[in-house]
Amino acid sequence: MSELYIRVAEDENEEPMEIPSEDDGTVLLSSVAAQFPGACGLRYRNPESQCMRGVRLVEGVLHAPENDWGNLVYVVNYPKDNKRKMDEIDAASAVKVKRGFQKTSDLIVLGLPWKTTEQDLKDYFSTFGEVIMVQVKRDAKTGNSKGFGFVRFTDYETQTKVIAQRHMIDGRWCDCKLPNSKACPDEPMRSRKIFVGRCTEDMTTDDLRQYFMQYGEVTDVFIPKPFRAFAFVTFADDQVAQALCGEDLIIKGVSVHISNAEPKHNNIHQLFPNFPGGSASLAAMFDRSQYQFPSSHV
Question: Which of 52, 75, 220, 261 is the most core-located residue (most Cβ within 10 A)?
């Protein structure tokens, strides 16, 4: 029997994920748990009675209702029906017992190669300590990696060690950090803007928008006039922007370089101290656009 995928979600109202079946049409519980840590089964809403039904589970193998998975969305069961947060609560409880009140947090992994899978991440980070959860963020429409993911450890000391160093994953250097929501209040928020260097005059805002939409939602594209061989792209998600920084990408056959855009508090007069006649016009341009040159290009 050819491989098929069933649609699985944490909740009926959430975006489902496709889980592969086995050759005989069954689905391994371990396949579900790999994407939804802590899962102990599946259930679905019966189209006729509108009641929730459980999927038969035998020795770690899930069997299709009436031998046909159909086009239904299956919802993950967790112990005591506590959904996905149960594993985080259990992990936090275990951590408290072992380490007092220091808790581990989800870490964002930036700069992932597009080919890296959840299993690749788990295999790599398991060498540092016990891993509770791994996730590669993917585009909901294409299924392609967005170039970043998340990992969480059982032990706080392991988390600290992982944050303190860079990581070579599938041939690329990656960084692990606390997401913005967990960062120190004094730490500045990461920019959602990227600086696109080495642009050519035939690149339009539509060209750049269409290209970068493959990585995430694009909220704005800015090309200075007169043309200055660079552009700025703003994403809805700062994590996408950070994941692209440092990359060399091919757009319309031209290699462009992606780097950070400086936050607006970097004053234009500090960036261009030797432009007494042109600083006003430059400042006006940047004030209108809310973009800045990255420090590496000044």
Answer: 261
